[in-house]
Design brief:
By secondary structure, the chain is an alpha+beta fold. The chain is built from 16 helices and 18 strands.
């Protein structure tokens, strides 16, 4: 027995055949008259009504209300909904009959006619002619908002956007945010660049890469896990301010703040340091937050968060002491940290160092405590092998994270430009990798050679744009702010 969906599809195919028999292409290659945006028509409705000219509009039928020899439709063209009136006496008996017999909610049509106000003062276009643009074969869902399988929304994002205006608005905001970010960086003298996605060595971050193979060259390649290394090549090459907005790929788990492919904005400034970057990022995030509210405040998880400068500051070790009650961190052994981690229910790997375990404790226990934007500074050197050591404490690096709403949104540091120190630290990373750490950074001899030609003093930062959109749109899952998140097929 055929399902209701299959039955509807067969019925609509018959309607498609009726159109074809009438000599009408159900999927034409062009519209025979000029169409305007529904938004433009509604905005200038009185002006267009006064001109008494015929106007055209095209879009998807979202609603259909029949009244004897007439039909009211709601048409949506991506900008606005416009009410359309089909009257048999105006459009013609045969054209009206064909429309009645073949049209459904979900179809794309083009209509042309004159504008008028209904008795209820509704802006309406009275149709004089119509054309089918794309016959839909499947019905739009009626109970999309009540789906028990929430992930179906992500698999069929096109329906999610169509049926839920809040979802569409969220992605329109994301687009505006990235546009604003570009404008701010360009105005500040940065140059936008593009670096390779396919790389012979995946470096620049501690993460497990995706591997692929290039047949013509017969070499293995990796999808980039960061844009850092190639952007530093550009500093060596003489550029002073560079940035890239793009996808990076990490073969990691999926949770509320992680997706295997995500978008970052990474930027570098020569002759600058992490303290200058703190002032820079305070202003940048404040300017972006102004897209949400003029006072630069947002609401996330029921809490008001202000992005007005100055942000709070705390060191990594102070955060461990205050929120995980780890005192005298430097005197603690790895075994001590293992015991503490187990108490907090942190999953550990046998190859993980004391500092790596501390980072995991911080992520689970401390980071959720920082609701207002906070700089977490002075990370252990072993966690960030590409960052410059602190002159005051060589075991730490000149670095910071920005955490807000309990989510890490920025990571930044003074860039290590000492090739000998860089080589030594990447050798240690490679040793950790040999012991089983699949996220350890590789020993990149080409990068070290480039550093030996000289890289200027510089500072850099990366912004997790998906997480920033989560914060600014009060969204608790990263899948909700990525148009097509990574999903396991049904």
């Amino acid at each position: 027995m055929a399902s209701s969906g299959e039955e509807i599809r067969r019925h609509r195919i018959k309607k498609l055949e009726i159109l074809q028999k009438a000599g009408i292409a159900p999927y034409p290659s062009k519209i025979s008259f000029v169409v305007l945006a529904a938004e433009d028509i509604k905005k200038n409705f009185k002006k267009y009504t006064g001109s008494k000219k015929t106007l055209g509009v095209a879009g998807r039928i979202l609603a259909k209300r029949e009244h004897g020899g007439s039909v009211f439709l709601d048409i949506f063209d991506g900008t606005e909904k416009l009410q359309v009136f089909f009257g048999e006496n105006k459009v013609g008996k045969s054209a009206y009959k064909l429309f009645s017999e073949t049209s459904d909610i979900g179809d794309f049509i083009a209509v042309q006619g004159r504008l008028f106000f209904t008795k209820r003062n509704e802006q309406t276009l009275e149709v004089a002619r119509w054309e089918m643009l794309a016959k839909s074969l499947l019905p739009l869902p009626e109970k999309w908002h009540g789906l028990q399988d929430v992930e179906e929304r992500f698999r069929k994002r096109y329906l999610d956007l169509l049926m839920n205006s809040n979802i569409k608005d969220r992605f329109l905001f994301r687009s505006r945010l990235i546009y604003k970010l570009r404008a701010l960086l360009n105005k500040d003298g940065f140059m936008e660049v593009e670096t390779p996605v396919l790389q012979t060595m995946a470096g620049g971050a501690s993460a497990r890469p995706f591997k692929t193979h290039h047949n013509a060259l017969d070499i293995d390649l990796w999808l980039r896990i960061a844009t850092e290394i190639h952007l530093k090549y550009l500093l060596i090459g003489g550029f002073n301010k560079v940035y890239e907005i793009g996808r990076v790929f990490r073969n990691e788990g999926i949770d509320a703040t992680h997706n295997p492919e995500f978008t970052t904005a990474e930027l570098y400034i020569t002759y600058s340091d992490h303290e200058n970057l703190m002032k820079f990022i305070e202003k940048l995030l404040g300017d972006l937050a102004a897209l949400v509210a003029k006072d630069k405040s947002i609401t996330f998880g029921g809490q008001k968060i202000s992005f007005k400068a100055p942000f709070k500051k705390i060191t990594f070790i102070e955060a461990l002491e205050r929120h995980a009650l780890i005192t005298e961190y430097r005197k603690k052994s790895r075994g001590d940290l293992v015991t503490i981690a187990m108490r907090f229910g942190v999953n550990l790997e046998s190859h993980e160092s004391k500092d790596k375990i501390a980072e995991k404790i911080f992520a689970k226990v401390c980071r959720p405590k920082f609701i207002q934007p906070t700089f977490v500074t002075d990370y252990p050197a072993s966690i960030l092998p590409l960052a410059k050591r602190s002159p005051k404490n060589p075991e730490a690096v000149l670095s910071f994270q920005v955490v807000a709403g309990g989510i890490e949104i920025v990571k930044a540091f003074n860039e290590l430009n000492d090739p000998l120190d860089q080589q030594e630290r990447l050798k240690k990373e490679a040793m950790v990798g040999a012991e089983g750490d699949i996220e350890a950074q590789p020993l990149d001899e080409e990068f070290i050679e480039a550093l030996e030609y000289g890289m200027p003093l510089a500072a850099g930062l990366g912004i997790g744009l998906d997480r920033l959109v989560m914060l600014f749109t009060d969204t608790d899952n990263i899948k909700e702010v990525i148009l097509f998140p990574t999903m396991k097929p049904k």
